[in-house]
Amino acid sequence: MSWFNKKELSTEALNVAEQCRQEAEALYRSGSHHCAEAVLESIRKKFTPELPESMVQLVSGFGGGSGSGCLCGAVSGGTVVLGLALKDDKKGITRMTKELHVWFKEKYGVTCCKTIRQTHKGACPILTGQVAGKIAELLENR
User: Which are the contacts of 121, defined by CB distance < 8 A and separation ≥ 6?
Assistant: First the structure.
C-alpha cells in the first residue's frame, strides 16, 4: 500500500485484484488486446459490466505509448477506466490517478513506454496485469 491510502484490503478485494491482473496479462499475451485495451477490458468486466465491450475501442490508440512511445499505454488505459468507473467523482479520479502514477513510477522508475521497453525488456504483459490489479485494488479500497 502506498502512503495515499493505508486501509487494508480484504481477501475478497485481493482476489478481485488478482483476477483482474491475470485477465489483463492473458489478454495482452493472447495478442487480442494491447496494454491499454487489456487493462480497460479486465476492469470493465469486474467494475462496470454495464458498459459495452465496444468501450475498449476508446483506448485503441494508446498502445505503445500512444504511438509515440511517451506515456505507458497500460497507465493511460487505467486512467480512462478510473474515469469510467468513478463517473462524476472528479476528486476520486484525480486521487486514484495520482496514486496509480506514483505507484507505477516506484515500480518502474518512469511512466515512459519507450524507456520501460528499453530498461525492462519483455515486461509489458506483466506490467499490464499489474496495472489492472492496482486499479482493482484502488477501486475496491475507495
Answer: none
Q: Which three cell numbers stand for residue 50?
A: 454495464
At 22, which helix (H) or strand (E)?
helix 11-30
pTM: 0.90
Please give the grid coordinates belonging to residue 44.
Answer: 470493465
- Reported as a single tens digit per residue, the pLDDT across 6-30 is 457 788 878 999 999 999 999 999 9
Contact of 2 with 96, CB cutoff 8 Å: no
Distance CA 102, CA 95 (A): 11
Cα angle value 70/5/91 (rounded, 5°): 65
Residue 142 · residue 96 · CB < 8 Å = yes
